[in-house]
Amino acid sequence: MVEHYSVDKEGAKDEDKDKDEEPVVKPSISKVIEALEILKLHELCQEEGLITKLRFYEAAERDLRSSAIQNKAQGTLDSFFKSS
Fold first, then answer.
1. Which domain holds residue 47?
2. Does 19 map to a domain?
3. Domain annotation covers residue 8
4. ∠ CA 36-40-42 to the nearest 5 degrees?
5. Would you write out the chain's pLDDT as a tens digit for each of its 84 residues?
6. How far is it, in rounded angstroms, from Cα 3 to Cα 41?
7. C-alpha dihedral (54, 58, 61, 67), degrees to nearest 10
8. Cβ proximity of 5 and 18 under 8 Å
């Protein structure tokens, strides 16, 4: 990740490295929610866990869950009962 944002001394991006890198894959919402849960657990385990950080993580998780629900397509009842 550091290489992605690194620049050479002249300030120009190293284009040779960019050509060899794979494109960034967007993680699924469930993976991001799982990562937020790990962050919340980490913050709870700290001696001086900050409530503001926990609230931020919880708000982000709520937003992600909400967008996941909004992105789901509503199907018909017939498709629910069809066996795969």
1. 26-71
2. no
3. no
4. 115
5. 555 555 555 555 555 555 678 889 999 999 999 999 999 999 999 888 788 889 999 999 999 999 888 887 777 777 778 765
6. 30
7. -140
8. no
Residue pair 53/81 in contact (Cβ under 8 Å)? The answer is: no
Total number of domains constituting the chain: 1
In a domain, 21, yes or no: no
Mark out the alpha helices in the chain (DSSP H runs).
2-5, 15-20, 29-45, 51-71, 77-81
Q: Tally the residues of the chain.
A: 84
Say if 31 falls within a structural domain. yes
Place of tokens 């018909």: 76
pTM assigned to the model: 0.56
Token representation of residue 49? 């866990």
Kindly tell me the burial class for residue 5, based on how many C-beta atoms sit within 10 Å of its own C-beta (0-12, 13-18, 19 or more): exposed
Q: Give the three-state DSSP class for 51.
A: helix
